[in-house]
Protein backbone atom coordinates (compact mmCIF):
# COMPACT_ATOMS: atom_id res chain seq x y z
CA UNK A 1 0.00 0.00 0.00
CA UNK A 2 1.20 3.48 -0.83
CA UNK A 3 0.86 6.34 1.65
CA UNK A 4 -1.60 9.04 0.57
CA UNK A 5 -1.28 11.39 3.55
CA UNK A 6 -0.71 11.79 7.26
CA UNK A 7 -3.69 13.04 9.27
CA UNK A 8 -2.79 15.86 11.66
CA UNK A 9 -5.19 17.06 14.37
CA UNK A 10 -5.32 20.81 14.92
CA UNK A 11 -7.37 22.98 17.23
CA UNK A 12 -7.55 25.94 14.83
CA UNK A 13 -7.19 25.07 11.16
CA UNK A 14 -6.49 28.64 10.01
CA UNK A 15 -3.70 29.15 12.54
CA UNK A 16 -2.27 25.74 11.65
CA UNK A 17 -2.27 26.65 7.95
CA UNK A 18 -0.20 29.76 8.71
CA UNK A 19 2.28 27.77 10.81
CA UNK A 20 2.68 25.00 8.25
CA UNK A 21 3.12 27.69 5.58
CA UNK A 22 6.11 29.05 7.51
CA UNK A 23 7.90 25.72 7.09
CA UNK A 24 7.21 25.32 3.39
CA UNK A 25 3.81 23.64 3.16
CA UNK A 26 1.38 24.95 0.55
CA UNK A 27 -2.39 24.59 0.54
CA UNK A 28 -3.41 22.10 -2.15
CA UNK A 29 -7.08 21.68 -1.22
CA UNK A 30 -9.20 24.38 0.36
CA UNK A 31 -10.82 23.98 3.76
CA UNK A 32 -14.04 22.00 3.59
CA UNK A 33 -16.54 20.94 6.22
CA UNK A 34 -17.43 17.26 6.68
CA UNK A 35 -20.83 17.34 8.39
CA UNK A 36 -20.92 13.59 9.07
CA UNK A 37 -17.66 13.73 11.02
CA UNK A 38 -18.17 17.34 12.22
CA UNK A 39 -14.67 18.38 11.19
CA UNK A 40 -12.99 20.96 9.00
CA UNK A 41 -10.35 19.52 6.70
CA UNK A 42 -7.76 20.77 4.24
CA UNK A 43 -4.66 19.35 2.61
CA UNK A 44 -1.18 20.86 2.52
CA UNK A 45 1.91 19.60 0.70
CA UNK A 46 5.67 19.99 0.98
CA UNK A 47 8.12 18.15 -1.28
CA UNK A 48 5.58 15.48 -2.15
CA UNK A 49 4.49 14.88 1.45
CA UNK A 50 0.80 15.53 2.10
CA UNK A 51 -0.76 16.37 5.45
CA UNK A 52 -4.49 16.38 6.09
CA UNK A 53 -5.23 19.05 8.68
CA UNK A 54 -8.27 17.97 10.71
CA UNK A 55 -10.06 20.33 13.11
CA UNK A 56 -13.00 19.03 15.17
CA UNK A 57 -15.80 21.59 15.41
CA UNK A 58 -17.66 20.33 18.50
CA UNK A 59 -17.63 17.71 21.23
CA UNK A 60 -19.80 15.52 18.97
CA UNK A 61 -16.98 15.26 16.43
CA UNK A 62 -15.34 11.87 16.06
CA UNK A 63 -11.93 13.51 16.53
CA UNK A 64 -12.78 15.69 19.56
CA UNK A 65 -11.51 13.32 22.25
CA UNK A 66 -8.30 12.67 20.32
CA UNK A 67 -7.61 16.40 20.13
CA UNK A 68 -8.36 16.77 23.85
CA UNK A 69 -6.00 13.92 24.69
CA UNK A 70 -3.10 14.63 22.32
CA UNK A 71 -3.45 18.28 21.30
CA UNK A 72 -2.16 19.31 17.88
CA UNK A 73 -0.48 16.15 16.62
CA UNK A 74 -0.30 13.57 13.84
CA UNK A 75 -2.80 10.79 14.49
CA UNK A 76 -3.24 8.57 11.45
CA UNK A 77 -1.63 7.47 8.21
CA UNK A 78 -3.83 7.07 5.14
CA UNK A 79 -3.00 4.37 2.61
CA UNK A 80 -4.23 4.06 -0.97
CA UNK A 81 -5.87 0.73 -1.79
CA UNK A 82 -7.38 -0.67 -4.96
CA UNK A 83 -10.15 -2.66 -3.28
CA UNK A 84 -11.36 -1.25 0.03
CA UNK A 85 -13.59 -4.14 1.09
CA UNK A 86 -10.96 -6.76 0.31
CA UNK A 87 -8.21 -4.84 2.13
CA UNK A 88 -10.43 -4.25 5.17
CA UNK A 89 -11.26 -7.96 5.26
CA UNK A 90 -7.57 -8.94 5.00
CA UNK A 91 -6.56 -6.53 7.77
CA UNK A 92 -9.37 -7.74 10.03
CA UNK A 93 -8.06 -11.29 9.51
CA UNK A 94 -4.68 -9.99 10.72
CA UNK A 95 -6.17 -8.59 13.93
CA UNK A 96 -7.05 -5.03 12.94
CA UNK A 97 -10.33 -3.66 14.27
CA UNK A 98 -12.65 -1.67 12.01
CA UNK A 99 -13.60 1.49 13.92
CA UNK A 100 -15.80 3.10 11.28
CA UNK A 101 -17.69 1.40 8.48
CA UNK A 102 -16.53 2.45 5.00
CA UNK A 103 -18.10 5.77 4.10
CA UNK A 104 -17.58 8.51 1.53
CA UNK A 105 -15.23 11.29 2.59
CA UNK A 106 -16.04 14.73 1.20
CA UNK A 107 -12.42 15.89 1.56
CA UNK A 108 -11.26 13.02 -0.66
CA UNK A 109 -13.70 13.84 -3.45
CA UNK A 110 -16.28 11.43 -1.99
CA UNK A 111 -13.99 8.42 -2.24
CA UNK A 112 -14.82 5.68 0.25
CA UNK A 113 -12.60 5.47 3.31
CA UNK A 114 -12.36 3.14 6.29
CA UNK A 115 -10.57 3.53 9.61
CA UNK A 116 -8.97 0.63 11.43
CA UNK A 117 -6.82 0.23 14.53
CA UNK A 118 -3.94 -2.18 14.75
CA UNK A 119 -2.68 -3.11 18.19
CA UNK A 120 0.93 -2.49 17.20
CA UNK A 121 0.21 0.12 14.54
CA UNK A 122 -2.39 2.58 15.82
CA UNK A 123 -5.02 4.24 13.65
CA UNK A 124 -4.88 3.88 9.88
CA UNK A 125 -7.17 5.12 7.15
CA UNK A 126 -7.70 3.37 3.84
CA UNK A 127 -8.91 5.18 0.73
CA UNK A 128 -9.99 3.41 -2.42
CA UNK A 129 -8.60 5.20 -5.47
TrEMBL record:
GO terms for molecular function: lyase activity. Residues 2-129 form the VOC domain. The keyword Coiled coil does not apply. It holds the Pfam family Glyoxalase_4. InterPro entries: Glyas_Bleomycin-R_OHBP_Dase, VOC_core. Keywords: Lyase. SUPFAM superfamilies: Glyoxalase/Bleomycin resistance protein/Dihydroxybiphenyl dioxygenase. This is Lactoylglutathione lyase. It comes from Aminipila terrae.
Amino acid sequence: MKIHHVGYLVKDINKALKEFGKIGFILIQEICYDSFRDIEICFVENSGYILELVSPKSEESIAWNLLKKYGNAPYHICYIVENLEETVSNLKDQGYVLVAEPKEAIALRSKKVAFLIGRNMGLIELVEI
